[in-house]
Amino acid sequence: MPAAGATALSLAILPTHAAEPTEAADAVIDQLRLSTEARTLPYLWIPNGDGTLSKVHTETGKELARYRTCPAGADGEPSRATVDLEGNCWVANRRTGTVLKIGLPEQGACIGRNGNAML
Questions:
Q1: How many domains does one find in the chain?
Q2: What is the pLDDT, as a whole number, of residue 119?
Q3: Are strands 32-40 and 7-13 parallel, antiparallel or unpaired?
Q4: For the residues 15-33, what does the mean pLDDT come to?
Q5: Residue 28: pLDDT band by 50, 70, 90 thresholds?
Q6: Which pTM was predicted?
Q7: Is residue 117 a part of any domain in this protein?
Q8: CA-to-CA distance for 44 and 31, rounded, in angstroms?
């Protein structure tokens, strides 16, 4: 289980075509910089051995949801998961060579496409 209060750092990449730095007076163009501002991420995403991915609350350790990463009958073998700055999860499937984005419903990033208000 992850430690309570796990934090994530933000990244800022300044483009090479910028005429002058816009992030800060001491910014250097074409340099990857870590933000000094840390924030707590509420969820941990864990690939499982059964073709699914678990969403776990970082403070309680409770599994909140389990998502299939491939269509029924196919085992994509989810392997690596990462979280973007909006909290969405991206997971790579070894066997199928695919990548899946799971939008974070709490941020309005998970949209049902059939209009029935259910996922």
A1: 2
A2: 57
A3: antiparallel
A4: 58
A5: low
A6: 0.61
A7: no
A8: 29
